[in-house]
Write a structure and sequence with these properties.
CATH topology of the largest domain in chain B: Rossmann fold
Strand content of chain A: 5-15%
CATH superfamily of the largest domain in chain B: P-loop containing nucleotide triphosphate hydrolases
CATH class of the largest domain in chain B: Alpha Beta
Strand order of the largest sheet of chain B: 6-7-8-3-9-10
Radius of gyration of chain B: 23 Å
Shape of chain B: elongated
Helix content of chain B: 25-40%
Structural class of chain A: mainly alpha
Distance between the termini of chain A: 27 Å
Oligomer: heterodimer
Largest sheet of chain A: 4 strands, mixed
Strand content of chain B: 25-35%
Largest interface: A-B, 27 and 33 residues
Number of domains of chain B: 2
Largest sheet of chain B: 6 strands, mixed
Number of strands of chain A: 4
Distance between the termini of chain B: 36 Å
Structural class of chain B: alpha/beta
Number of domains of chain A: 2
Chain lengths: 374, 330
């Protein structure tokens, strides 16, 4: 144990002296959270809306108000009747144009269909889809209000309508940061722990110090533990930093038990550190270790984990592939604990997979690194 | 019991035999040199004895302990230092010493004592907090040595310890080695600096993985008993080499930097005949003098004899195999 500590202490000293490593381990997670938290924002709010109100009636103003009051739309421009609408979307003056034709209010009053047009910038399909959804909801609400007003009977006005109240639990405002933070944690922990262990072992191989260590009475097991424990500690600190930043900036709170959260994370980290060690047992240069780590650990943690791209909408083959990487299971548990306030109990299956992964990978790495010289 | 012993030790990498049936025994407290040109197999031998490389055949014993059977026990008894200073460049002198002390299982007062000892031995007093990266080569090398002997090993392996270090540092390094040998540490060193071999009590000459000669320096020089070595300098060196190679009175001719060394049966006659030959071919001004054979002469002579005996039958007898070998040593 004393020798493990000697290695761990040395590892910490080297890490603390190397600004790059330190940045990789502590700075980058926080920076990434900021970047992804703000940049990877899928929310569509305050869409710039240009309005051409050819009717200019109380009714048309009411419709416009229901758009702007929803907070999904901001009234960005007013286009005079008869002006050319083509340039508005092209010059990106607005993302959508609401056109209310003449006689809108009169048609309604006289019991005819009133027509309203919405022009959308479809270049960004994701945003367009969302805008389409919200605009339909706004118009549906307006329709209900108009119908109710038209009904003669007081009683009918307040009932006989479906009062549709959808609620998104755990993330009522459907903010994407709430959803992204757990994924970010899974990705960052994978990145830092795989690369830090792999690089730290391979660096010793490159510089020849590994050979020096091998002639000392330091046992391989002691070396492995001494190399793993500091990075485990650092990764947990990084996790703490992410949670604090997420709370301060994005109001993401851990609703479930912290103990369960850290226990799961520990398990996940063992798998990740084991994978780093496994890479180091094959790779002879830091460049190769970096490449292998990126391709087989970091990329799956982004693309095959449900971090950004929902697993359910992937092609079947890729869906199967996600089962081979631990981040998938980790994210399910993490979202449960952080967003839903769940404990580990409902996630036994995912926990089991995480345990198997950690065991197999760490075992393989252990086997490769402790076998005799050849 | 020998401090270090190898029996029929061999190592092949595919078809290449790096070490071929090596049997040596090194006594306790001896400074034992492994000499040979690059690729002769010296480092491979040391790496096998230290347990860094598994032999393809044969055994290696350190103080009677079989490396294959109990590598951990062997590692407790040995120290190892290579030409590539295996220190952590991004740690200070003190941190390197503490770390290696730690992995050798030293602690508390003993670690403090050994650390102080190592610092004074390596002449690094007051430099404990310097970054290892910033030390000059000679200091790094002494620090590497200090790190390798922190745990008081009974046997110390030095694999080309003075590569790339200036002569003055090399001398002070060898003073350290001599001192340790006096204290009873067995030292096995590989080098291709032949002047360093003079520090060794005994020397094993290796060539192409095989042991070709072993003994003290004066024993090795016995190969020239009954013969003499003369040194020739003249303007057209290669022409002269060709001339002497074909001459029946010259047993061996080889290039030695800007001179030729000839092995002849008798110094006086040899000197006279060589001078005559050169004058007759107009290769003048020429100088021919008998010299005391150096270890280098021994080295080249032994290798050439070895090569000749090995290739005999494959080549024409008129051709003196390998006699055009350049100085195999710097």
């Amino acid at each position: 144990m004393r020798k493990v500590l000697a290695v761990a202490l040395k590892e910490m000293r080297q890490a603390s002296r190397d600004p790059l490593t330190l940045a990789l381990l502590l700075g980058i997670p926080a920076a990434m959270l900021l970047l992804y938290g703000y940049a990877l924002n899928f929310d569509v709010r305050h869409v710039a809306l240009a309005v051409q109100d050819r009717d200019g009636s109380a009714g048309s103003r009411e419709l416009i108000a229901s758009f702007t009051n929803s907070t999904y739309f901001d009234r960005a421009a007013d286009l005079p009747a008869g002006s050319n609408l083509d340039g508005v979307l092209e010059r990106r003056l607005a993302r959508a144009v609401l056109v209310i034709p003449e006689n809108y209010a009169r048609d309604l009053d006289e019991g005819r269909r009133a027509r309203v047009q919405l022009l959308l910038d479809g270049a960004d399909a994701n945003t367009a889809t969302t805008v389409l959804g919200t605009s339909s909801a706004v118009v549906a609400d307006a329709n209900t209000a108009i119908l109710r007003k038209a009904l003669p009977d007081q009683q009918l006005r307040t009932s006989r309508v479906i009062d549709y109240e959808p609620r998104a639990w755990y993330n009522p405002e459907l903010k994407s940061t709430q959803f992204l933070v757990p994924g970010l944690i899974g990705f960052i922990l994978m990145l830092t722990s795989v690369l830090s262990t792999a690089l730290s072992v391979v660096r010793e191989k490159e510089r020849g110090t590994m050979e020096q260590l091998r002639v000392t009475s330091l046992r391989p097991a002691e070396l492995i533990l001494g190399k793993t424990l500091p990075y485990l500690g650092i990764a947990l600190v990084a996790m703490g930093i992410i949670l604090l930043v997420a709370r301060a900036l994005f109001a993401v709170q851990v609703r479930g038990p912290l103990l369960d959260l850290f226990a799961t994370t520990l398990l996940y980290l063992f798998g990740a550190l084991g994978f780093g060690l496994l890479i180091s047992s094959f790779a002879d240069s830091q460049a190769i270790a970096f490449q292998v780590g990126s391709v087989f650990a970091t990329l799956p943690a982004i693309f095959l984990s449900g971090f950004i791209f929902p697993i359910r909408s992937m092609p079947r083959l890729l869906q199967w592939l996600t089962y081979a990487f631990p981040t998938r299971y980790f994210l399910v548990i993490l979202r449960g604990i952080i967003l839903k306030g769940a404990s580990l109990a409902p996630y036994r299956r995912d926990l089991l997979f995480l345990t198997i992964y950690a065991g197999v990978i760490f075992g393989l790495a252990w086997f490769r690194l402790t076998r005799k010289a050849d | 019991m020998a401090a270090v012993e190898t029996r029929h030790l061999s190592k092949s990498f595919g078809a290449f035999k790096a070490v071929d049936d090596l049997t040596i025994a090194v006594e306790e407290g001896e400074v034992f040199g492994l000499l040979g040109s690059n690729g002769a197999g010296k480092s491979t031998v040391i790496r096998m004895i230290c347990g860094l490389l598994a032999p393809s055949g044969g055994t290696a014993l350190v103080e009677g302990v079989d490396v294959a059977r109990d590598p951990e026990e062997v590692k407790r008894r040995i120290g190892y230092m290579t030409q590539r200073f295996s220190l952590y460049e991004d740690l200070t002198v003190r941190q390197n010493l503490r770390f290696f002390g730690g992995v050798y299982g030293l602690r508390g007062v003993i670690l403090d004592q050994r650390q102080a000892w190592a610092v004074s031995q390596a002449g690094l007093e007051g430099k404990e907090d310097l970054m290892t990266r910033s030390l000059p080569g000679g200091w790094k090398q002494r620090l590497a040595l200090a790190c390798a002997v922190l745990h008081r090993p009974k046997v110390l392996f030095l694999d080309e310890p003075t590569g790339g270090v200036d002569p003055i540092s090399r001398r002070s390094f060898w003073n350290l080695i001599d001192k340790m040998a006096e204290e009873g540490v067995t030292i096995i060193v590989t080098t291709h600096y032949l002047d360093e071999a003079e520090h060794c009590r005994r020397i094993a000459l290796m060539h192409a993985g095989r042991l070709i000669s072993m003994g003290t320096v004066s024993q090795l020089k016995q190969v020239f008993a009954g013969r003499a070595v003369i040194e020739v300098s003249c303007p057209r060196l290669f022409e002269a080499l060709d001339l002497f190679e074909r001459h029946e009175d010259v047993l061996e001719a080889s290039l030695f930097g800007s001179r030729l060394h000839l092995v002849v049966p008798d110094a006086g006659t040899g000197q006279r005949r060589a001078l005559e030959l050169l004058q007759r071919s107009g290769n003048v001004p020429a100088r021919v003098e008998p010299i005391v054979p150096s270890l280098e002469d021994v080295f080249i002579h032994t290798i050439e004899t070895e090569e000749a005996s090995r290739t005999r039958g494959e080549q024409k007898p008129t051709e003196k195999a390998g006699s055009r070998v350049q100085r195999g040593v710097p």
